[in-house]
Amino acid sequence: MKETTSTVLQCTAVTDTPITHALVALVEMPGGPDDPDDHLADRPYVLCELGEHDEDTEHAAHLWTAETEPPQHLWFRWTESGSGLRVHHRFVILPGCPARFINIDEGYRQWCGFPDEHPGDHSFRITDPLRDALAERARLEAQRLISEDDADDTPDES
Ligand SMILES: [Zn+2]
Ligand SMILES: [Zn+2]
Question: Could you read off the pLDDT of 67-99 as tens digits, one per residue?
Fold first, then answer.
């Protein structure tokens, strides 16, 4: 019997990236990107990556990892009013969370992708139903393509 890891759902908060502030944060960060403009052009908005949390906890989106020793991560943290308006935001630079998940049966380990001392569950315990649904669809599609290939390869028995 296979053990399943208990999981929590990902927070659904989304907000516009405050481009000017984010640019300053990236430029000032030691080990920041060479092309902060380009980096932000791809991210007009950000999603909270944490597991579901209460409204007193800041949302958090990862913006950049500096390959310093140890690596440092730039996170955008924000809070919202009940109607989804951003009330407050800040940028924080933090080392990564040291937690890791070791799956002994399947022989792999996974580091937590969140900043040190983050609230709530570690990233490896969080599921995103949309992402999972897309992954499942891709898997089924791949299976379908493979079985079609197999059908083509079947020698003609005439
Ligand atoms: Zn959140
Ligand atoms: Zn963690």
Answer: 998 899 999 999 998 787 888 999 999 999 999
Centre of ligand 1 from the C-alpha of residue 107, in Å: 31
Question: Ligand 2 centre and the CA of 19: distance in Å?
Answer: 27
| DSSP string computed for the chain | -------EEBP--EEE--HHHHHHHHHHSTT--S-HHHHHHT-SEEE--SBS--TTSPEEEEEEEE--SS-EEEEEEEEE-TTS-EEEEEEEEEEBP--EEEETTTTEEEE--SBTT-SSS-GGGEE-HHHHHHHHHHHHHHHHHHHHHHHHHSPP--
Task: Say which ligand is closest to the CA of 49.
Answer: 1
Q: Of the ligands numbered here, which is closest to the C-alpha atom of 121?
A: 2
Share the mean pLDDT of the chain. 87
Q: Where are the domains of the chain?
A: 9-153
Closest ligand to Cα 50 = 1
